[in-house]
Amino acid sequence: MDCYTANWNPLGDSAFYRKYELYSMDWDLKEELRDCLVAAAPYGGPIALLRNPWRKEKAASIRPVLEIYSASGLPLASLLWKSGPVVSLGWSAEEELLCVQEDGGVLVYGLHGDFRRHFSMGNEVLQNRVLDARIFHTEFGSGVAILTGAHRFTLSANVSDLKLRRMPEVPGLQGAPTCWTALCQDRVAHILLAVGPDLYLLDQSACSAVTPFGLAPGVSSFLQMAVSFTYRHLALFTDTGYIWMGTASLKEKLCEFNCNIRAPPKQMVWCSRPRSKERAVVVAWERRLMVVGDAPESIQFVLDEDSYLVPELDGVRIFSRSTHEFLHEVPVASEEIFKIASMAPGALLLEAQKEYEKESQKADEYLREIQELGQLTQAVQQCIEAAGHEHRPDMQKSLLRAASFGKCFLDRFPPDSFVRMCQDLRVLNAIRDYHIGIPLTYSQYKQLTIQVLLDRLVLRRLPLAIQICEYLRLPEVQGVSRILAHWACYKVQQKDVSDEDVARAINQKLGDTPGVSYSDIAARAYGCGRTELAIKLLEYEPRSGEQVPLLLKMKRSKLALSKAIESGDTDLVFTVLLHLKNELNRGDFFMTLRNQPMALSLYRQFCKHQELETLKDLYNQDDNHQELGSFHIRASYAAEERIEGRVAALQTAADAFYKAKNEFAAKATEDQMRLLRLQRRLEDELGGRFLDLSLHDTVTTLILGGHNKRAEQLARDFRIPDKRLWWLKLTALADLEDWEELEKFSKSKKSPIGYLPFVEICMKQHNKYEAKKYASRVGPEQKVKALLLVGDVAQAADVAIEHRNEAELSLVLSHCTGATDGATADKIQRARTQAQKK
């Protein structure tokens, strides 16, 4: 164990720091790192180098080369830089390389050097040029902060949703600040800068002078500043050689350390572990590396060659021409197990397991000691946790064997944590491989999440990403399907391959994989300017609701209409129709509809409710006189209030019906015109309301008003049949209860409807007396029914017996009730009996 802790360095009494090698770098650097612009992505991300940047001593004819390497030094991309001078490089959270140029333009490249997009930081930056830039990360995304030649700051907190903010001016600032950085406080990005002995904080609206709490006196300048990985803490390096460490708000001081070096450091970054109370800063000069914290002493390392620091969530990566190392605080579980003379439960369990493999009885002694203290569960958990923080697979196995050994002596230890750690370490060891080059720690892996890691593996080693999904048994939507979709989105960006080949390759790889949306892949292809490829990919999309919106966006509206009609989704068809209506001129739009009968029918339905004039134009274009006539009839009542306008509209409708050879509709329309004119005349002569009444209602209204002759004349004019007229007059007179006039009417001539309706109407008005008058006049075939209506059951029985009609006898018998009609019922039964004997 003491050999294992040989690279542990104490910082004070409570923490150890260790530095171990991640990779031996085999990259062939022709220049020192100091002569390049360098950017390394966090979470074991790639390294970008821009060789031969624009310097005065370099020949102007030499073009710089942008190179991208994995963290293990394997080349990923190399391209000759053909754009303007670059001021700064940085990686976004999505592992896109942001190249900030002197003119304020930002070029975005992918992991393999593929150009993604370009955006500008504004006209002011263009006019004043860029002096310095920072790429920073917030919870909203990756941001860019710019210092211009006019000593003003401009920033965007999220380059994916570019919103430029011009920061307030610093009073009296004549030159560039000695150092500055971007902070994120209360979900808002700020700028902290140093001008001599003064610090200024720029927010959205104001510039505020700030003073670090508890700063040692005598400071005349701040030479370097560093913000922690989580943006919660800040470190300031002063010209007196002191390093002040505190909260990012500058209101609380954690510690202050005198490093006795006044030369400005090349780099200064934080080195802290999540949930750890220790706070440390790593400071690098040309050949010296120093770790300082809340302790009187520091840890110092000699740098044999030019190195670069990359702050991480739980430590610092340090790479040079030959090596790539990781410096971090030793986790508590590892410290308790491996420190010299440790009696922690995990340490005893590890020793017990080793002795067990040697078949030594000491294994039982160690194990009994742990069990007597009741710490076996804690020992197993310590070994599992420590295994996660080990980089070497042999140490991982040793610790997991110890945990497995201890589990055998526990009755109810849940296996989930052990199994999950084994799975996580297998994944971590696979991605840490030199050929993959993602040196994630366990803490970084958990913070990054497996989904993000898989997305990053897609661009490095697709088969490995799929194997990890299958090994972890992730659901299709989160695992293989998601990876294949991500791969396809990258595939469409390969512009050196034909559209046909890319579409075929994607379909062969994806097939009908559940959870994969071809429309999302097509949208990415369209975003890359490959419209034809997007259309080919949409052919594989089974959901029309996903096809159509993208086709509309690509201005392939007619194809979108065909797809919408094929789907049978009327809402989708309406969406396309309204889009086409706004996109095409009226003539082209109508011609398009003529070729699509279903779309034309749906659009007519829409126009009936929303655009009547457009509907009329459609009927005119199609020479559809029948529908045009119907349209004018509806319009005459919906739009026209004046009688003249209504009649004119009806005349137009009649003409259209004649053209359609529908004489019945034309005659009916003309009759309606005559009725309207007559109703207007009746209103003028008699008063009251006649307009818009039907013919029958008009006749009824005249009868109710006592204008019988006018009603009869109207009936003759419009050839109302006698039966219908008698019904109308009968109903009207009964409603008026004009029984005398009704009797005269019944005697005026023989009733064409018979006299049973008179009986029914009178009984409906509860006038049995009048009803009996007409019951006697009812014909023999309806006599029984009439007598029953007026309640004369006995006479109805006599008539039924006389007719010898079984149906009538049964009907009368059904109306006989109780003792009142008992004699009648007996009479009917006797008549039935006699009829049966005969």
Question: Could you give the topology of this structure?
Answer:
Blueprint: E1 8-11, E2 15-24, E3 37-40, E4 47-51, E5 65-69, E6 75-80, E7 86-91, E8 97-101, E9 105-109, E10 115-120, H1 123-128, E11 130-138, E12 141-148, E13 153-156, E14 165-166, E15 179-185, E16 188-195, E17 198-202, E18 207-210, E19 222-227, E20 233-238, E21 242-247, E22 253-258, E23 267-271, E24 280-284, E25 288-293, E26 299-302, E27 307-311, E28 316-320, E29 323-329, H2 332-338, H3 345-357, H4 362-372, H5 376-388, H6 393-407, H7 416-431, H8 442-448, H9 450-458, H10 462-472, H11 480-491, H12 499-510, H13 518-527, H14 531-538, H15 544-553, H16 557-567, H17 570-583, H18 586-594, H19 597-610, H20 612-621, H21 625-638, H22 643-659, H23 663-686, H24 695-704, H25 708-717, H26 722-736, H27 739-748, H28 756-764, H29 768-775, H30 780-789, H31 793-803, H32 806-815, H33 822-837
Antiparallel strand pairs: 1-2, 2-29, 3-4, 4-5, 5-6, 7-8, 8-9, 9-10, 11-12, 12-13, 13-14, 15-16, 16-17, 17-18, 19-20, 20-21, 21-22, 23-24, 24-25, 25-26, 27-28, 28-29
